[in-house]
Amino acid sequence: MSKIIELKSVPSTLSYYLRALTVSKSGQLPVAESELGRAVLKGRRVNVSSLNAYREACAFSARGSLPATYPFVLAAPLHMELLVSDAFPFRVLGLVHLRNEIIQHRTIDVDETLDIDCTLRGPRPVPKGMEFDLYTRVLSGQELLWECVTTMLRRGGGSRPASRAHNKRKTVDFTPDSVSRWDVPAGTGRRYARVSGDSNPIHLSALTARLFGFRRAIVHGMWTKARCLAELDSLLPGDAFKVSVSFKLPVFLPSSVQFQQRAVDGSIEFAVKDSAGKKPHLTGVIESL
Questions:
Q1: Which Gene3D superfamilies does the entry mention (predicted)?
Q2: Across-strand partners of 284?
Q3: Distance of alpha carbon 11 from alpha carbon 9, whole angstroms
Q4: Please, where in the chain does CATH 3.10.129.10 lie?
Q5: Residue 238 carries which DSSP code?
Q6: Which of 51, 127, 188, 192 minimizes the number of CB atoms within 10 Å of its CB?
Q7: What are 133-182's pLDDT values in tens digits?
């Protein structure tokens, strides 16, 4: 049984990145996919000033409930705790965020006290390397309010072909009902880092991004997902829904991109593409529950 890490408070972001840069890792993987570690944090409260800064950075309107992507920010310290701990056998820097699925069972009020539970599972061999999943749950008392699955890739060491279903996952092309153009300024990565706590160097500047093989800084994938939900706010299907996205090509900073969406069969399909509307940065779907 994996070790449970109980956080009594939220550590500083700087402490996590210092550990990420300095901690030694075993590189030893279990022989089969399993639960590698679990972290819990009880009594998490929302800081209203931080929430408002997040809303502004992602273009959400002010309202009495949390944006559906904001619990991911609240849970980020648990994610980092697991990834820098002995539970994860590799260094954090270099992980690629592939997919993210959020299920919101109901809206979360700003003044609610929340318990957060996160489990790390893996590895799952795929042709490009090893996939790992972070399963996150947010509860109020015994009521499950919000769930998330974050899938990450560690390149190298993959040995099995992807499953048949995985091989069939392709970019969905559609004729959009509407198209919007977003200008994404150079400072978007730094701004989102301040409101989310995710200060990965690849997002902060061209100089720091080049240290990790990127020619320019790239925007956070979860900023892009949040920005999509802000754009679709008036179309969201009530309090309970599922929103799933696949991250494709990185959005380099600064950039101009297209946001495309259409309603089909009770769901909403959407995509963020390059300025010509051809190459996908993100594809996603929202389904009512």
A1: Hotdog Thioesterase (3.10.129.10)
A2: 245, 270
A3: 6
A4: 1-22+32-164, 170-289
A5: S
A6: 127
A7: 999 999 999 999 999 999 999 988 766 554 444 444 444 688 999 999 99
Q: What is the full DSSP assignment across 25-42?
A: ---PPPSS-EEEEEEEEE
Helix (H) / strand (E) element for 212: namely none
CA distance 56 to 2: 39
How many H-runs (helices) and E-runs (strands) does the chain carry?
Answer: 7, 11
Average pLDDT rounded to a whole number, residues 79-85: 92
φ/ψ (deg, to 5) at 149 = -120, 120
Closest CA to 130 of 95, 100, 167, 84: 95
Would you say 147 and 137 are in contact if contact means Cβ atoms under 8 Å apart? yes
Query: Domain spanning 170-289: which superfamily?
Result: Hotdog Thioesterase (3.10.129.10)
* Residues 88, 25 contacting (CB under 8 angstroms): yes
Cα separation, 201 vs 205, whole angstroms: 7
| β-pairing verdict for 34-44 and 178-184 | unpaired
